[in-house]
Amino acid sequence: MQISRLPIALALICAPTALAAHVLPEPGIWTNTEDEYFAEEEGREPVEWLALEIADDGKWRRIDAFGDAQSEWSDAAIPDLSRNNEGDWQIGASEIRLASPVSCWVSVKRDTPAADGSEDWSYASGLMTFDQGGRILVPGSGTAPDVTVRIRNVTWAEGSPNKPALVLYIHKQDPVLAEIYSWASPDATLIGVNLRWVQASCSPIEE
Fold this sequence. Notes:
Strand content: 35-45%
Number of strands: 15
Shape: globular
Distance between the termini: 60 Å
Structural class: mainly beta
């Protein structure tokens, strides 16, 4: 009896496609911050901000700008993940970029004395975020203003005369409009700001 080889042939043809569907970017945090920020300025359709965290074991989940989970870990293929003509990763038509981890310290001047009688300035260090739109909330705990630190490694819109820059933003109440921001070279090892009521310093972490 002749055994058909068609099922085997089909399996060999389909196997690379099935594997390709689960090919992932390298582990880390990926966001479309720059694409989302400049889409309209470049005359493209607006896109919704998104961030993915990919673990070493290939599982992934959605996170927000503070790094908090917005979905459960999944080992399924990431929906709409592909590479564009330049070989960069994208979700749908929106390019995503790998973020670098960043460590910050923040000190805020207190409006009222702390209960333990500590000094006029609060201090928090070892605050971890990422440089593709990552945020850190520093609660004032009723004695100082709440402060949010945001970090972006900015690549300007196509045609802009501005050069890429590492930017540190300080937000007080408005999550969109910063109180102040400072910038440095994209490869800077330190960026900081001092507004006399808040001081902050951030350093990218080499992996």
